[in-house]
Every structure is written in structure tokens, then in C-alpha cells.
Amino acid sequence: MRVDERGTLAFLEAPEQVSLREYDVPAPEPGAVLTEVVRANVCGSELHIWSGDHPLIRDGVLGHEALCRVVALGDGVETDYAGTPIEVGDYVVPAYFATCGHCAQCGAGRFRLCENAYKYWSRPPGREPHFHGTFGTHYYIHPDQFFYRVPDGIDEGVAAAANCALAQVLCGFDVVGVSWEDTIVVQGAGGLGLNAVAVAKEAGADVVVIDGVAGRLDLAADFGADHLIDLTELDTIDERAEEVQSLTDGLGADVAVEVTGVPDAFTEGIELLRDGGRYLEMGNIIPGRETTFEPGVMTRKSITVESLMRYDPWYLGKAIEFLARRAGAYPFEEVLDAEFPLEDVETALEWSRDRSVARATLVP
Ligand SMILES: [Zn+2]
Ligand SMILES: [Zn+2]
Predict the structure, then answer these.
(1) Claim to verify: residue 229 and residue 294 sit in the same structural domain
(2) Which among 78, 5, 71, 79 has a CA at the least distance from the CA of 34?
(3) How many CA atoms are closer than 13 Å to the CA of 9, on its beta-carbon side?
(4) Ligand 1 mean position to 118 CA, how many Å?
(5) 237 and 145 in one domain?
(6) How much is the pLDDT for 1?
């Protein structure tokens, strides 16, 4: 199969230095899929990479969230990873990481911890097949990368976000366990936080959201948050803990989810939980950022702490299923508030960092 075409991609050469490069579009090897990018979103971890804060990735082709259209299928590819038949022209979402199936973690069934997860992501663009990130005209899905067909009827921008925030939240909530009996505190109403509100409401939980930005709190309310705590009004941990207690008959929350990326939020989350509560840590990933923490509080309260990066790759299929059935119940499309052409990728990143846009999307 030959694809005679040139494509463009965004290459991060050094922190905050992005250039657009052109390469020949590769034909897919057996088991791989060549796609065109329909939309790619700028998420929080993309900003960490761009500014040089990411723990693992320093340079390379940018972009990891995307909705793609199949251009060519490698030999042997007949279905997605759920067994749904796949054809040229179909919309798909790929997991942004690999699941090799051959490392010690994969061998033990801990797929989200695959030791080779980032073997393709963010490689230098000169290395074939060039299109290692989603900020470009094309994206190459390798044979060991899960991908799922996107059915008609899901908003394009919303589908593009499925392979990061929603899939991770669905996986995280299964790890920590959430039910209708729980009061759950979501610390931070960014991309992960709003998805967490939606998934917690689906479970029937009572949801408390803490944030300090009015627009984000409004969005959390639109997603169905039952109680909002504004950091600018209740500006001490004690006041916020008291508020959570008053909402839970003096007990504290059953579950808390940290999705702010602020180290002190971890310490606070432990305070907000009831004895025997469960904590899900997903936001703090940047090395070298610390918080003062008294471990005895956690022990005395017998808190269970779970944490995760990425997700087991089949959660991407669940995320698409969730959107197909339930996206209409939540204002997912309101989260994406700005669209940029690929040439303006630097503006999209700068405006996202400065928070003049909440979630930018790139349209090649
Ligand atoms: Zn592996
Ligand atoms: Zn992301």
C-alpha cells in the first residue's frame, strides 16, 4: 500500500521551542494504521511537556489526544481492539501509549504499567514513521497501540479528549471504587476533574468540587456537581474540611480525587476524608514538587491511597462507549472553548498556559 503524500507535524526542539516540519507520509506496516488527524486537543500534560516539566518527555513530536480518520490499514488490520470492523475513512481514537504485551508488567497483567509504554510517543520526527504525535496532519498507530472506532453522533472535540482524561478517570474510579453511597470530593475542576464529576454522577455519588476559578466551578455545576467549594471564599484547609464534614454528617468524604497537580492538595485530601476513606491521586506528576505531610494522620484515619498514570488500554474503549451512550447528559463540548489551525500551535499552547482558554483544540 502506498501513500504518496507529504504531511506536517509540530516538533518540540527544546522547552517552548516548536517548529513545523514536513515529512513523507509513511505506508503502514502490517498491524499498523495510518491516520489523518481530525482534531487534537491541548491537555495539561501537553503543557508540562512543552514547558520542560514532564517527568519523562523533553522533546519530540508533540500531541497525544486526538480524533483521527483512517487513511490506510496495514496488512492484517480488520477490526479495532473491541472487534469492531474497521475501514478506510472510519473515525478512530488511539491510546497515546503502547502496550507491548512482552514486558514483565504486561506479563503480570499490569498493562497500564507497560515498561515500553512510551516507546513511540514523542520520538524525534526524523525517525520513521515520523508522525509520533497528534499535533500534525497525520498520526501513525503502531501494531501494539490500542485504538477504537468512534461511532457516529459523538461530538468531534469530545471524542478527541477520550484517550486521555475520560479513559483515565474511568480506570481510576474502578481502581478506587465509587458507588451511589459515596460522597466524593473532586479537587480541581480542570479536564480530569470535570470528567471525574461526570463519572461520579453516573455512579450516583454525591459530588463536592473544590476549585478557585469561578468559570471552572460553573462548569463543574453544569456537569452536575452537588456542592461547590470556592478556594477564594473558604481559604484555609480547616474551613474546607469543616465544610466537607457539614455535608457528610460530620464524617468526612468517602472518596477524594486529586486532579489539581498541586502537592499541597494531597495533604488536604487526606484531611477531607473520613476514617477508612479512599484517596485517588492522579494530578501530581511533576518531579521535585513537595508538600509537608504528616503520615500519622493517614495511618490514624486508615486511609487507602491509590494512584495512577495512564490507564489499562481497554478503558479507552469504555470511554468511547460512555460517550456514545451518555455524552448527551453532560456538557462535554463546553470544555473545549477555542479552535486553532495547526500553524498556530504555539499560540494554542501559550494561551492554554496563560489560561486565556480552558481547553484548546487544533484542527490541521
Ligand atoms: Zn509491556
Ligand atoms: Zn492528555
Answers:
(1) yes
(2) 71
(3) 29
(4) 10
(5) no
(6) 44
Among all bound ligands, the one having the nearest atom to the CA of 109 is 1
**CA–centroid distance, residue 348 to ligand 2 (Å):** 15
Residue 317 within any structural domain of the chain? no
CATH of the domain at 267: 3.40.50.720
Q: Could you tell me the end-to-end alpha-carbon distance of the chain, in angstroms, rounded to an integer? A: 24
How many distinct structural domains can be found in the chain?
A: 2
Q: How far is the CA of 104 from the centre of ligand 1 (A)?
A: 7
Residue 117 CA to ligand 1 center (angstroms) comes to 7
Q: Collect residues with CB below 5 Å from ion ligand 1.
A: 100, 103, 106, 114, 116
Q: Could you tell me if 17 and 146 lie in one domain?
A: yes
State the distance from the centre of ligand 1 to the C-alpha of 1, rounded, in angstroms: 29
Do 112 and 211 lie in one domain? The reply is: no
Residue 60 lies in a domain: yes
160 CA to middle of ligand 2, Å?
Answer: 10
Its domain, for residue 303, covers 165-307
Residue stretches of the chain with pLDDT short of 70: 1-4
Distance 256 CA to ligand 1 centre (A): 30
3-state secondary structure of 262: coil
Q: In this structure, is residue 108 part of a structural domain?
A: yes
Residue matched to cell numbers 470544555:
335
pLDDT attached to residue 4: 66
Task: Give residue 289's identity as a one-letter amino acid code.
Answer: R
The whole-angstrom separation of Cα 90 and Cα 34 is 12
Same domain, 239 and 269: yes
Residues 105, 234: one domain?
no
Q: Is 295 exposed, middle or buried (0-12, 13-18, 19+ CB in 10 A)?
A: exposed
CA 188 – ligand 1 centroid, Å: 31
